[in-house]
Each structure stands twice: as structure tokens, then as C-alpha cells.
Specification:
The chain has helices spanning 32-43, 45-49, 87-92, 109-116, 138-150, 179-205; strands at residues 19-23, 60-64, 95-101, 126-133, 154-155, 160-163. With 210 residues, the chain is of the alpha/beta class. Strands 1, 2, 3, 4, 5 and 6 form a 6-stranded parallel beta sheet that branches. Bound molecules: flavin mononucleotide.
Length: 210
């Protein structure tokens, strides 16, 4: 796997910031978790090499939407609804990486459900997007940006679109793209880290009253 270990480019454990990597697809044999693991390894290279090296609490929380049982949508109302089983994990995160496929020129309904079931948990935090698809997932990125803006989530300028990532798997089934894509991920995470610190400070020092 090609992963940067540049300390300045990752959300290093020393920074005390927590990132939720959210994998949005739920299909059987889906690609999402493979890409999410690639992102998680870039965020926390030590834990990727040796899971025993992971800090407690871990700085990276992998949320696979397929593993989340959300309440029935009939209970949803503006601003959220009954507390979901992942609400605390989302609330604890300082930043998000949305890992999403493109389905019919957008991101999947499964990811939209997770987003709609939460509100305050997202607000005034940063996110970046790693999308993928036959064409690279750029429509999914664009649609997600608009929805996240409505939730007062700041998205990084850079977002990554992976074209047909299933053609770049190594012998262990891990995503192993060329160096340019790994550098792109590093750049996105560097930006995310900057925003995560800035917004964590702002949430603490300058609460938004609206
Ligand atoms: C219902 C459906 C619609 C799709 N539409 C698109 C599309 O609009 N653009 C694209 O690039 N790929 C599209 N694809 C291909 C997916 O991006 C690709 O199969 C990807 O692996 C799906 O992610 P997943 O395996 O995590 O579910 C579509 C796939 C599905 C299942």
C-alpha cells in the first residue's frame, strides 16, 4: 500500500484531533471499506502497521454505514430525530472523511440517510470527500458539498475522485494506487487537519449563537 507517513500531512495522534472516516455504501461486496481503510491508514500509519499501536481513544473512527441500524425514517424530523447508535461517535469527531461511490450521478441514498439522521453532530466541523466510480465520482463530490454546506460543514478545497479503483488492488485486496493519488490524499488531509484545528478552537472560543 502506498501511504504517506509525513507527520505534517496526517492528523497525527499528537494533535489530539479525532477523525471519523465514513464509508457510505451498503452493497454486498462493496468497494467502500477498501477505500476507507486506505484513508484510515494515511491518517494513522502506526495503527495501520500494528493495530496494537492504536491509541485509546483511537484518533481515527471508521464508520461503515452498512453496519449502522438507523431508526425508521417515519421518526425523522428537521434537525435530526431520535438519537442514533452512532450519534456520539459523530459528535466526538473533529473532522470527517466521507468515502462515497457515485450512483447515477450522485452519492448513494444510504449515505444521505446517515447525514439526515444527525444535525448538531456535524455542525462547524470540516470534511473532505474521497469519491470513486467508473468515471471518478466527481458528481458525487459536487452533490455532497452542497448538502454539507447546509449543515455548516466546511469542505476542503481539494477532494479526491478515484477512477475505477477496483483496477488498482494489490495481492491482498488492498487499494494500492499510484503515487500521485497518494499525494492527493495527503494534500486533502493536510487541509482537513488545518480546518479541524481552526474550527475546534473556534467552537470552544467563539460559539455561534444562531
Ligand atoms: C446503482 C449504481 C449506479 C451507478 N452509477 C454510476 C455513475 O453514475 N457514475 C459512475 O462513475 N459509476 C457508477 N456506478 C459504478 C459504481 O461507482 C461502482 O460500482 C462502485 O464500486 C460502487 O461503489 P460500492 O462498490 O462501494 O457500492 C454505479 C453503480 C451502481 C450500483
Amino acid at each position: 500500500m502506498s501511504v504517506s507517513t509525513d507527520q505534517n500531512s496526517s492528523l497525527s495522534p499528537a494533535a489530539g484531533l479525532r477523525v471519523a472516516v465514513i464509508s457510505g455504501s451498503v452493497r454486498k461486496d462493496r468497494m467502500g471499506p477498501t477505500i476507507a481503510r486506505w484513508v484510515a491508514a494515511a491518517l494513522d500509519p502506526a495503527a495501520a502497521l500494528d493495530p496494537a499501536a492504536a491509541l485509546d481513544p483511537a484518533p481515527v473512527d471508521l464508520i461503515d454505514v452498512a453496519q449502522v441500524a438507523l431508526p425508521d425514517d417515519s421518526l425523522l424530523y428537521p434537525g435530526g430525530g431520535p438519537k442514533s447508535e452512532v450519534a456520539d461517535r459523530i459528535a466526538t469527531a473533529d473532522a470527517f472523511v466521507f468515502v462515497t461511490p457515485e450512483y447515477n450521478h450522485s452519492y448513494p441514498a444510504s449515505l444521505k440517510r446517515l447525514i439526515d439522521w444527525h444535525y448538531g453532530e456535524w455542525r462547524l466541523k470540516p470534511a473532505t470527500v474521497v469519491a470513486y466510480g467508473v468515471q471518478g465520482g466527481h458528481a458525487a463530490i459536487a452533490h455532497l458539498r452542497g448538502v454539507l454546506a447546509e449543515l455548516s460543514v466546511v469542505t476542503t478545497r481539494r477532494a479526491l475522485g478515484l477512477r475505477a479503483p477496483w483496477t488498482s488492488l494489490d495481492d491482498h485486496g488492498r487499494y494500492a494506487p499510484d503515487a500521485e493519488l497518494s499525494r492527493g490524499l495527503t494534500a486533502s488531509l493536510t487541509e482537513l487537519r488545518w480546518w479541524a484545528q481552526v474550527l475546534a478552537d473556534a467552537r470552544r472560543d467563539r460559539p455561534l449563537m444562531t
